[in-house]
Structure formats: C-alpha cells, structure tokens
Amino acid sequence: xxxxxxxxxxxxxxxxxxxxxxxxxxxxxxxxxxxxxxxxxxxxxxxxxxxxxxxxxxxxxxxxxxxxxxxxxxxxxxxxxxxxxxxxxxxxxxxxxxxxxxxxxxxxxxxxxxxxxxxxxxxxxxxxxxxxxxxxxxxxxxxxxxxxxxxxxxxxxxxxxxxxxxxxxxxxxxxxxxxxxxxxxxxxxxxxxxxxxxxxxxxxxxxxxxxxxxxxxxxxxxxxxxxxxxxxxxxxxxxxxxxxxxxxxxxxxxxxxxxxxxxxxxxxxxxxxxxxxxxxxxxxxxxxxxxxxxxxxxxxxxxxxxxxxxxxxxxxxxxxxxxxxxxxxxxxxxxxxxxxxxxxxxxxxxxxxxxxxxxxxxxxxxxxxxxxxxxxxxxxxxxxxxxxxxxxxxxxxxxxxxxxxxxxxxxxxxxxxxxxxxxxxxxxxxxxxxxxxxxxxxxxxxxxxxxxxxxxxxxxxxxx
Length: 464
Hints:
464 residues; mainly beta; Porin; two-stranded antiparallel sheet; 5 helices; 22 strands; 10% helix
C-alpha cells in the first residue's frame, strides 16, 4: 500500500507541475525525537502477574516537506522501539503492548508514517494520502486561549492520532475543508492503519475498517458573537475479525453530535454531546454521551493559574436488553482526558474532574488533575482502551466482575495526576509526571488482588 501511496503522490505532483511549480519548492526537514522512561506499580487481579516494572520507549520521526504557493508534498519516516516491557504485566498499557506484539518485550519498527500531497488556497484545502487527523480542531478561532482549549480539551475525543503511545495512529485517505467566511465545512474518508501499541504491523492498512466524517463549523464571531458552534457526523464501519468476535457481526455506527465553545482570552465554556445509532453486530446501537467543561484564567497572579472543572459521561447498558446501549469511543486519543494513567475509555463512564494549570515561567508549565470515576450502568463493563490497533483485537478491554455478571458498586475510584514540562533552547524539552489511581468498589470487583496503581514517567524531546 505504501508503494501505491507514493506512486499516487508522485503522479499528482506531476499533474500540477508546470508554471505553478516552476519556481521550485521551499524545503523543510522537520525532526522529532523522543525518549521516555516509565515506571509502574499496577493494580492486579492475579497475584502471579508482575505489578512492579519499568521500561523505555524511543521514537524518531524525520520528515521532508516540499512547499509551493498552494501545494505541499509531505512525508515522515518513523522508527520506534520499546525496551524491557514486562512478560506478564498485571494491568495497564504495558500488558497491551506485549499482547499486541506476540509477546515481544523489546518490539521495534521502521516505516513510513505519513506520505501525502496537500493543496491550500484562500477558501479550499485538501490532503490526499497517508496522514494524521484530529477531529474537533478542523479550524481555529484565532483567540489564543480558546485555540488551546480546542487542541487540548476538544480535539481527538472520537477520532485522533493517539501519539502518546509509541507508534501512534495514522490514516490513509482524503480530507478536505471549504471556508465560507462565517462558516466552514470539512470532511474525511479514511482507513485507519495498524499502530498505536502495535509495532509488528505498524502502518499496514486495517482493510475492513473505514471511517467517514463531515463537520459544519460556525466560526467564532460568525454565528455567535462570543462562541464557536460545531455540528458533526461520523460513520464507523468495522468488519475486522477482532470487532466481529466481540460484537457477533460487523459494527456499523453513525455518531451525530455538536459542540459549543464560548469565551475569550480569560474564560471558556465547552459543551459537547453525541448520539449513536446503528448496528453493534446483530443488535441495535443506541447510545449517548455529553461533556460540560469550563475554565477561568486568573491574570496578574503568581504562575497565572487556570482552573478547569467538568463532567464527562458516556452511556452504558444492559448486555441482555436486546440492544447495545454502551457509547462506543471509536478511535480517540484518550490520554488527554480521562486520567493520564489510561485505565478508562469513554464508554459506560462518568468522570467528574478538576484541573489546575500553572505557568511558573515563560518556558515551563504544570498540570494538576483530580478525577472521580464511576460506571454509568452497573450491568455493563468497565471499558478501557483507545480503539483499533490491529486486525485481531477490538481495541478495547471489556472488564467485568470476577464473580457474577453485574457490579454491586458503580464507583471505580479516583485518580490524582501531576505533570511538569520545561522548554529549553534549540528545541530541547523535558517532561515528567506521576499519577495515582485509588480503586473503589467496582474496580475492586475486577482487581481482586490489588486495586490501586501508581505510574511515573520522565521524557526528553528534541524538535527541529
């Protein structure tokens, strides 16, 4: 498939060559290097599995951009590796890495992560080929604070690049946008690629999975004087063996939703909601989700604190009810939202949270978070994961009580997060973080050995 993408890209460049490209391109070679150490003390449902372990992750991305006035030819070569993953991890993302790579505790890969041709004019933009996609940030508002909210709190809720994990997620296909002044229409037809936690099949097409989307955005100040309105529709069509094994047949889900972002450079209010209809195998999909979140920045105060508070809730359902009432999280980047320790997906979940963001200096920031988690429906499962990463797995863990079919408690527990980032000269950066999960009744029914978990990490980056 990579050969076909490169051939198509070359043909398109030839097709638009001539006077348009005669001046020759501007050339850019972006480089993105990352090294991260992680240490875990995980929860456990089995005393024979490893709870305490540490490992390394390394990733290098080297790109090549050829830019003309309207056209851009873009490519990224990626190499990634993990070292020292646990053979029998008890819980968390490390176990998923090993399972996804046939038990390899030191997996690695080299491949073409992106290869595309793009066009942009005053009103129209499009990209064809291998690319990333972050649903929710199709356009920006032009207001610094609100655009930061869009990038960090709105985008990738349902379709994202999942770049916190080492391989990341990319797509083959077509994306476009049309600017109508006060409004914007954007859309995509994409086929996700293997990746995320999967090294061995990285950037191979998931042949039986396709996603389509269309978004109408009323620009900030266009439809509303102090806000942005988004209306979106997504169609998820999944016939992979991993999906069929869980659902009993193909998963075909339409998600219709809207978001409203109000505010200015100091304050914001974000409302997001979605409804799902379609087929979860042989039964009907009928689910919902909503998010309400607000933030306020205290100017002229030490470290310029920003306080954010919110609730995110996604429906659950009774598996024996004759329909699937669990909201399906699609292909997100959940690491940004429901606790950085990544134990929960946005399915059958209630997350009430408080965030504190600080800027002690011009090149440093601190993020502190507190989350309380609960199940929306005790008859459903505790879901974890971030969507498809190979052909064989649905991409989500469906955790049920060790005894019985129904949870006796709906409380999963709470999580406390802390993250620190520093930027230095010449593109160097340093980050560190820690998270503690305290499992409550529902978590203890799954993790009968030990329901608490701690995770810490240190990361160095260099971008050029």
